[in-house]
UniProtKB/TrEMBL annotation:
Keywords: Electron transport, Heme, Iron, Metal-binding, Signal, Transport. This is C-type cytochrome. It comes from the Bacteria. PANTHER family: BLL4482 PROTEIN, BLL4482 PROTEIN-RELATED. Residues 1-42 form the signal peptide. GO terms for cellular component: membrane. Gene3D superfamilies: Cytochrome c-like domain. Coiled coil: none annotated. It comes from Shewanella polaris. Its cofactor is heme c. Heme c 2 binds at C206, C209, H210. The keyword Amino-acid biosynthesis does not apply. GO terms for molecular function: electron transfer activity; heme binding; iron ion binding; oxidoreductase activity, acting on CH-OH group of donors. Binds 3 heme c groups covalently per subunit.
Amino acid sequence: MKLTHHHDLARFKRLGLTLSSKLTQTLSLCLGLGLVAFTCSAANDTSAIARGAYLMKIGDCVACHTAVGGRELSGGLPFETPFGAVYSTNITSDKDTGIGKYSYEEFFDAMHHGVGINGNLYPAMPYTSYSLLTDQDTKAIYAYLMNTKPIKQANLDNDVSFPFNMRFGLKAWNLVAHDAKEFTPKEDKSERWNRGNYLVNALGHCAECHTPRDSLFAMEPDKHFQGAIIEGLEASNITSAELNRQNWTHDDLKSLFTEGYSRKGTVFGGMYPVVYHSFSHLTDKDMFAVNSYLLDTDKKIEAKALTFNGHQPKLPGYNLYMGYCAGCHGQNGEGRPNVAPAMAGNSTLDKASPHNVVAVMLKGIKSQHYNTTTSFYAMPAYADQLNDEQLRDLTNYLRVTWSPQPGDLDLNTIKDLKEVIFEHD
Ligand code: HEC
Ligand code: HEC
Ligand code: HEC
């Protein structure tokens, strides 16, 4: 996804305004005409439209269906696939260039089976997750979309190479790789857990990044949430076992998903837009449901002290840390408010794979804003300053000093990681 963060935020704020003014218009129109029970019931049901607006946020539709600098939901954002670029389409209510002509049944097919009125859709559109949506929620999203302002903007042609430009090939892909199942609550779990499961897996489509894919690019169901490489970063293992091992609490996840940073570090890469556009808008109740599902418990988890095993000045990584990193991340890795997050207890360090640690050192992170009072500096890129030996020494030092991970990475690990990290540049 080619999104710039500043731009996203500005766009997002605008969206908030448009949604509510549109909604009040429709509301007053329906109420004013006294038609609430009749005409306003199908595509004009105001409570459905309001719910649709919320569901659209949690489903993150705007982020994908709006080009950088483009008008909301009018499409045109490119997605790099292994076969070429696919562009998102205009899903405003315009009858010629948008989806205004879609009947509810046709819309349902697009959302659940990846079949649009012009043929099969590329799975860049996450219908592989949305297929879990309930009929009621699909209707609410439909009601919302049919009440958007029509924008006339023709769709861009995809640059997908032969034979992948043949949409009928996708039909075959669907047969082998897409199992359209309705969401079924687990009976041995609480209502709250099931709600969280639904929000995360259906609307949130978190698995699209966090679940590894097989040779057909289908998500592997038995490796659900075990982590996958996405645009040079690792969309980490977020299984409940791993999140609990790292001592994430409900409050930590809540601050990560509302603020973008927490006691255990910040979100970056593809995770930042997810938080900004989507999960930061969860209601408190839904947020608790999501976190109860992710942690597989709604019982309070005790926050343990943040790991700091003490400095070892004899290790080669010590001087590198003090020279390059301590100015922002703190002498003892305690972090600095409005500058940089703590290394102590940071979940990016506490992972079996050092992938993201090395990626962040090589490529840096653009300055990100977290809310009106908090924004961190940019994390500099050190690709030109640190050689492979130094990267190895630093990574090992960070791991032994601020996490329970061993400091035994060798040069080959760094070299292999570099290949994956720079693969898509
Ligand atoms: C990760 C990016 C992404 C997200 C999130 C996403 N879409 Fe899409 N969507 C796409 C792309 C790309 C296409 C075009 C696929 C193609 O041309 O084969 C598409 C196509 C569609 C279509 C078919 C439209 C047509 O032109 O015939 C509909 C309807 C649609 N999306 C609705 C939604 C809704 C509603 C949401 C939110 C619940 C959503 N999308 C979220 C990427 C996304
Ligand atoms: C100019 C200040 C600055 C310096 C110097 C700096 N960092 Fe960072 N670093 C940051 C900021 C800010 C972030 C978080 C960025 C974000 O996600 O918004 C960060 C994030 C990280 C992360 C990811 C953890 C997380 O929670 O986001 C790691 C790992 C990291 N830095 C390691 C290092 C190492 C190792 C060095 C020295 C080679 C270093 N940093 C030097 C500012 C800095
Ligand atoms: C576009 C790809 C993408 C999507 C979609 C996505 N993530 Fe992520 N996620 C990432 C990447 C990349 C990272 C690693 C960088 C970081 O720590 O922020 C990450 C990190 C995380 C982390 C931090 C893990 C840790 O140990 O530090 C959590 C928790 C998380 N994601 C949860 C979710 C949830 C819940 C959703 C669904 C709402 C989701 N993600 C959707 C890409 C994605």
